[in-house]
Amino acid sequence: PAPVRGAATAAPAPVSATAASTVPVSAETTAHTVTLVTGERVTLRADGSVVVAPRPGAEADYVTRRLDNDVFVIPLTALPYLGRTLDPALFNVSALAEAGVTTTPVRARATAGATAPPSGPAFGAALAKQIGAEAAKGSVGEGPLFGGVTSVAPAVATDGVRDTPRPSARAGHADHPVKVTVLGTDGKPLPGTTSFALANADDAARYQEPFLDAVDGAARVEVPAGHYTAMVSAPAFDSAGEPAGVRMATAEFTVPDGGTGTEAVLDLRKATERVTFSTPRPAEEHQLILRYLRQDAKGAVAVGGGVGVSGGPPVQVQPSGRPVTTGDLRFDVYTHRKAPADAATPYSYDLKLANPAGTIAKNQHYKVTGRQLATVRTNYHSDTPGRAEEVARLMYLPYETSGEALSEPFKAPARRTEYVGGSAGASYADWLKAGERRFVSRQQPLVPGRTTTVDWLRGPLVPGFTEPARGAAADETWYCAACRKGDALTFSLASATVMDSAGHHVLAVPSDITSSHFAVVSGDTTLYEGDGVPGGILTVPPKQAPYTVVYDQTRTNGDFRQSLTTHTEWSFASGHSGGQTVPDNWTCVSEAGEYDGPGDCSALPVVVPHYRLDAGLDGTSPAGDGHLVVGFGHVPGVVAPPAVTKARVEVSFDGGERWTAAATTALGKGRFRADWTTPDEAAGRDASLRVTGTDSGGNTVTQTVKSAFTVAAARG
Q: Which superkingdom does the taxonomy of this entry point to (predicted)?
């Protein structure tokens, strides 16, 4: 998919005298992580999905609001001050990502002698402390922060909360006054400041406000006549400043044309149904996310957002008396649940379940059976012992274009069984943070009853090409990474990232690549070479000719030991392309250096290796018999690719000074098994690999990986 707001973009890379362009960046490889003023880390993917990690020592509890292309992630502790002391733009992760910040810079105003803590975990801890003190007194959010801070805003230019377009005043059609009352669980106006959303359900463009403040339970606004929808998520806090529960209430009402005033009530007493789950095996709630999507009569989002909590505080919602009659309502729940601490083998549940269209169901207890679940036996590889990692599963229902998840920390290497369940049509994509690198999987459909085994970060980690997700929508744009369109030749690796043996790829930002060199050669002529780029687009002669692409990459990363240095050479033949082989939803680069449709675009016959190395979760293999299964395929988009008929595998135990050829056996369908003997004297040292694959058309790949695995130390 094309880069969107918040995505990293590739720098322009001139590639020849006749063409200059950028290396296409896939949305699958782009994301931006920003630390909020309150210390939570939010990773925003190019599709608008977010993964939230808590500030150190706390839980991640938040609400989201989605307005046009902006995604807001607001910690619950910030809600009582939102729009008053705390500028909502502090939590507009889309705008912060676009501004390129990784830690939110702020400017604060205060009365004499008062100061704001530094942006980040210290600010979040101080805010929680104040929330706890105010909660103990019975009212939250009434005064200034930290003894006199009157406003905190981003110190960078952001869009903030954009003004919503309003209709021009017409005679006899002036805006009408509305009083909105937020009632607490005692039936009285809720003290302090409560943020709520309000929108016109006929046409959200007429009125849409995601952040209105009810002060001591009351708010007054002026709106055009029509049907309206409102939603509030109100947390309660304990004396430590942690959420003790969250209630979500809604209201549907009509503002008549010509009326003198309308009153609407958001009544938290009606949020009676607690969201709970039961699973085949005992499991403790780690996170719970509610997704609320209220659409207007034109199908546009009127109120979009949700609630995310961790640690198990009660979350209660207001069930619907009947389906909405203007527009539509979609409500679903997601939970990540973990095995008890004393479980013999770790396991988890990820469940994404929809309510009937137009309603919030009266029964919010979700009972899941084994027949609804897919089983994923997951191996988390780590070549450094005890590496700190975080995992999250983004789940999507058919009507959703983005997802939300909280990350779960753990230590790798590790194994666990993961059960995944959801309503019809659910799909999911996984996200893994290893050290400071973030890896993602392709989105895939959820198939109940299926059992699969998945390896994360199984080596070697090498440069490669991403592929479209299985079952991707026919109208989802995909940029061809190795194609010929007319006489424009594109060769673009996965945004200078690396991939593991299962095809999981690291997000392009931040990069740990400290040096790289890319070159394109034809015969004795070097057509292009450059440092720090993962590919290029160049205009070449129309005549069929041989080409060799060379890419060297060195990474520096204290969280990884292996596969940090690679050298890859791809050789193939290509001539003028006047026909189309790629799917109709693909985009290719034209000779003018512009993104264009798939016409006259054909994928290059580029051979790619896929590894299955016989090594443990810790990246070690014992001395003695060693083996590798390597499969060879071609880049996405190649039609009827030539069969890979030859393979050569070599192993070095001295850093590449001397190489030993392995015995290779063809297994069929481009797969080969390589066997060798690892000498006893190599124990405790790293071993390097060099593999070569050749197809029947003469196209080849040779890839050298330094320190691909480690020979286990001798015992005793």
A: Bacteria
